[in-house]
Fold:
Amino acid sequence: MNTRAEPLTGSRTPPTEPPAHPPSLQRARKLALGEPMETVYVVKGMTCGHCVGSVTQEISALPGVEGVDVALETGKVTVKSEAALTEDAVREAVDEAGYELVGVSE
Ligand SMILES: [Cu+2]
Structure:
């Protein structure tokens, strides 16, 4: 068998190159800083949305914190941060809000 996939006089596909994808600045920044961390803390004493707001505000003010999510029923506070936070720093923030940090949840 001597078949050619492309006829010699046929139309050739134009040489289009896929656009280069330079890594975005955001991605480069993420790589430099490492993966963001997520830690779940347990806070005692929160009873309503106002408590949640206070704790969220205080922890959000810590350097490197990217997000705070409070589950009022369980007292669990999920903190997203660029790097590991010290428990002391979080304890201080929770204390500042008027509540007690019980510890870190698994
Ligand atoms: Cu409250």
